Protein 1
Amino acid sequence: MSPAAARPPRAWWARPVLDLARELIGATLSCAGSAGVIVETEAYHDTEAACHAHIGLTRRTHVLFGPPGTAYVYRSYGIHALFNVVAEAEGVGAAVLVRALRPVAGLEAMGARRGRVGPRELCSGPGKLTQALGIELPDNGADLTRPGRIEIRPTATGPDQDAVVAAPRIGIIKAAELPWRFCLRGSPWLSRPVPVAPR
């Protein structure tokens, strides 16, 4: 594993959401004594219909328009908490969804939270990884630039961009054609394999 950088300042998160989604591949996400390396992300922006912020500023979406480096956690289909990080300048509704991790620490605690599943199933999906790490709705709005329960530390050198592959987002209907899903090429820990382009 590449050496971790320091906790990123606010300005590190205030970049275009597509750039941040790529940059987070290889970063380490930790919470409640467990941690994993991010191997899959998706970008969302208020200019496209799949983003919650597309409808504008509401009681639910206000976090998306807030300071970059803020956690946006919401309940999907009334079941799973999904973890996102707000990107771009304050006032722009954009965030990166963390979709999958390679577990690296606290696997016993992850297993206790997830139940009787194998290592491959601990964090191979956005709802699985939040359950494994103990991330829940009260973490919505957490400031990731300050010490707290949740921490993201990128690698000191950033990801090898040749190892990051882009593909269409999954599990959505609107704007599904956008290639805004980013994955670590060849990783066995992805939520779903990346489609192979026809030759």
Protein 2
Amino acid sequence: MRERADGPRALEDRLLDELPRIRSFLRELARSSDVLVDVDDMVQEVAARALRYRRAFDVERELSPWLHKTALRVFLDRRERLRREAASVHDVQPVDASTPCEAKLDDREEIERLLAKLSAVERDVLTRFHARGESVREIAQRLNLPEGTVKSHLHRARRKLAEGRA
């Protein structure tokens, strides 16, 4: 992470300051949930994701909204996983060893199909950002595009994938 000496504190320092608020936020979400989730595990996951994707964060921006969005995503992912696990315990079915591999193959083929329908620049920006972990600034420099244009391509690609119409 590049940072000027007179600029904002390092992400790690700012993250430590924000963790108590993230814990409170997740505790409130957990209280309203119908599934029992471990708040401390989720706080740790938020911190891990923040550090893993630090290059995607603009140090000039507020950290709190970014962390809250990450915390919400962690909560929703964890809750959904726990619901699926609870449902699978109740639905005992014969195990078909080929099913998980076939499902993964089907998912991969679907992803490849959707990515193939994106424009070349949308696909490139999307994979650089999500698969390679490059920041918007890095992508803009490497592709010789304005940062706003990179953000637009990224937004359009995500929207197309979410709508399944890539």
